[in-house]
Amino acid sequence: MPIIVNGLETAVPADTRVSLLDFVREQLGLHGSKKGCAQGACGACTMLVDGERILSCLALAVQYEGREVTTIEGLAGDGALHPLQQAFIDHDGFQCGYCTPGQICSAVGMAAEVARGVPSHVTEDVTAAEIELNHDELRERMSGNLCRCGAHNGIVDAIVEVYTGRAG
Ligand code: FES
Ligand code: FES
C-alpha cells in the first residue's frame, strides 16, 4: 500500500529502518521538514499525519502505509500561503527559519486538537466541551517546538492571530 505525501501516492521504502523524516527529505526531496535533534526533543521535524502532528524523526516510514502525510510544502494551496505562514511573516515569527516548518505544522495540528476538545497538561476543566486557546494553553501545547533564535514571541503572536482572532 502506498503512503500519501502532500496528496501524492508513493511507495514506502524497502528498508524498514528508514524514518519518515529521512524518507521525506532524502527520498522525496522535500527539505522543508528539518532534522534538529533526531531524538524527539526539538519539534523541528513535525509533520501532520491524517491531520495529527507527529515527530517524524521518531517514526518509521513503513508505519504510515495508506496514511496521509502533510509537510510544510503541502500546507499552502494553489500558490497561496497558508494563513499561518502569512502570519509568521507578518509577526516576525522566525529568524533563521530552521524551526519554522515544524512550528507551523505543529500549530496547525495543535489548533485541531483544541477544536476537538483534547485537554492538555494545563487544562483546568478536562470535561469542558470547549477549550479556550488562552495564554497558558498555547504555550503548553507548543512547548515541544523549540526555537534557538528566540522568536517565540512572534510565533505566539502569529498563532494567536490565526486561531483566536485576537490581535497578535
Ligand atoms: S528532529 Fe525530531 S524532534 Fe528534533
Ligand atoms: S527561527 Fe531560528 S531556530 Fe527558530
TrEMBL record:
Gene Ontology molecular function terms on file: 2 iron, 2 sulfur cluster binding; metal ion binding; oxidoreductase activity, acting on the aldehyde or oxo group of donors
Q: Which organism is it from?
A: Amycolatopsis pithecellobii
Using the record's annotation, list all stretches that form the 2Fe-2S ferredoxin-type domain: 1-75
Record bears the keyword Phosphoprotein: no
Keyword Transmembrane: yes or no?
A: no
Protein name from the UniProt record: 2Fe-2S iron-sulfur cluster binding domain-containing protein
Q: Pfam families, per this entry?
A: Fer2 (PF00111), Fer2_2 (PF01799)
**Hey, which pathway is this one from?**
Alkaloid degradation; nicotine degradation
Keywords, in A-Z order: 2Fe-2S, Iron, Iron-sulfur, Metal-binding, Oxidoreductase
